[in-house]
Write a structure and sequence with these properties.
Strand order of the largest sheet: 2-3-4-1-5
Number of domains: 3
Number of strands: 5
Largest sheet: 5 strands, parallel
Number of helices: 15
CATH class of the largest domain: Mainly Alpha
Shape: elongated
Order of helices and strands: EHEHEHEHEHHHHHHHHHHH
Strand content: 5-15%
Distance between the termini: 60 Å
CATH architecture of the largest domain: Up-down Bundle
Helix content: 55-70%
Amino acid sequence: MVYLFTGENDFAVREALKELERSLGISAEHHSGAELTMAQLPDLLMGVSLFTVQRLVVLDRLSENTSLWQKLPDWVSRIANDSTVVFVEPKPDKRTTAYKALKANATVREFPLWTERDTSLAKQWVIERAKAHQLPIDTRTAAHLVERVGVDQWRLSSALDTLSLLDAITITIIDEVIPATLSENVFQLFEVALKGDKDRVAQMIATLSLQDDPYALFALLSSQVQTLAAIIFKADGDDPVKDFAIHPFVASKLTQQAKRFTKADSAHMLTLFAKADADLKRSRGEPWVVVEKLLLSL
């Protein structure tokens, strides 16, 4: 059996490989494609181990080994029946002969990274993952965990591992023990800035500056101000939530904020952000100072 796993969701790929191991009752042999030689390839694809009846061979990013990738069409149809070979290619070049040969002979499974559009899927995954580990969690609490952690499955899985050590899982406990993502901190920071709470802005900037990157923070803030502008400037029939793939939670919060501002206010904010962007790109001042000055001027 031949599989081709594509996509950059390496957590989902890992889970799929573990499921294959369970279903076959054997451990996988993992090989880095970039390090393989031509002499090794026949044994991996056609060879039979003296110690096992079946083999599960995982070849990771063979496409990075140009010489072997070009030879693959000559071998893929000759893979031994008692072997299960999995080619893991996060971003394969679909124009290559090797990819086309794999697609014709393999079971193709795609594992794309989750985005904010997959929030509902992430919530359901959290509930099912928690249930499988006998962790009691309701829909509202699962939704809060996703809002706090994001849709990255590695972070969600790690959060559930942490929560499994506790007697109960509540929203309060999640806020106490699970660190918020930068995106959630940025939303809170932007909300505080819009309310004009200068002292709180300064406190949050001081905390964020200890561990986060000011340029990444500014990029996320820029996304927030653009989202706010899209909501403020929307015309009848427009759906900025759908058009800009805005997270429903963010859309709800920013829609409330939008009621306090006019189109002129929004345009002024965009002008301030454009100036801050230019200042950052031209190194006109310490980055954190530029960001703080921007937020205090909103």
